[in-house]
Amino acid sequence: MEINIGITEQDRAAIAEGLSRLLADTYTLYLKTHNFHWNVTGPMFNTLHTMFETQYTELAVAVDDIAERIRALGFMAPGTYSAYSKLSSIKEEEGIPDAQDMIRLLIQGQEAVIRTARGIFPAADKASDEPTADLLTQRMQIHEKTAWMLRSLLAN
Hints:
Blueprint: H1 9-39, H2 45-72, H3 81-87, H4 99-126, H5 130-154
Helix pairs in contact: 1-2, 1-3, 1-4, 2-5, 4-5
Protein name: Starvation-inducible DNA-binding protein
Family: Belongs to the Dps family.
Domain Ferritin/DPS: 17-155
């Protein structure tokens, strides 16, 4: 059935493409955060183990929200590791970094997601797609706060 929500198919496609990149970044950051949760060691173990769990749990909800927005726009959401590796600006880690490097890598990942989300705004604004703009704003607020909290762990 044809979708008639006041946004052209071309504009919906552009927005869905951007959201697919956001989904890939978010899922990749989820996986990295979960991996670090499992494998963190050192004097900050309890703090980081708990913090990372909070973060990956929030990211798991986010991937669902982003994928469902793509579907609401009439497009299929990517859902494979191979698709995510092509779409994501976040790279996987080889090996297990130490706790301080985990924090730095997660800050970089949070900031990458923010940049990806910010890059979708022109397409959403052009189409007056307020639901996508709202989703992007919420995601950016969460990632900016999380990046700040992680950076605070590195302060002297």
